[in-house]
Amino acid sequence: MKHIVATKKAPAAVGPYNQAIVAGDFVFCSGQIPIDPETGAMVNGGFAEQTEQVLKNVSAVLSAENLTLLNVVKATVFATDMAAFPVVNEVYARFFASEPPARSFVQVGALPKGALVEIEVIAYKG
Question: What residues make up the domain containing 35?
Answer without folding.
Answer: 2-124
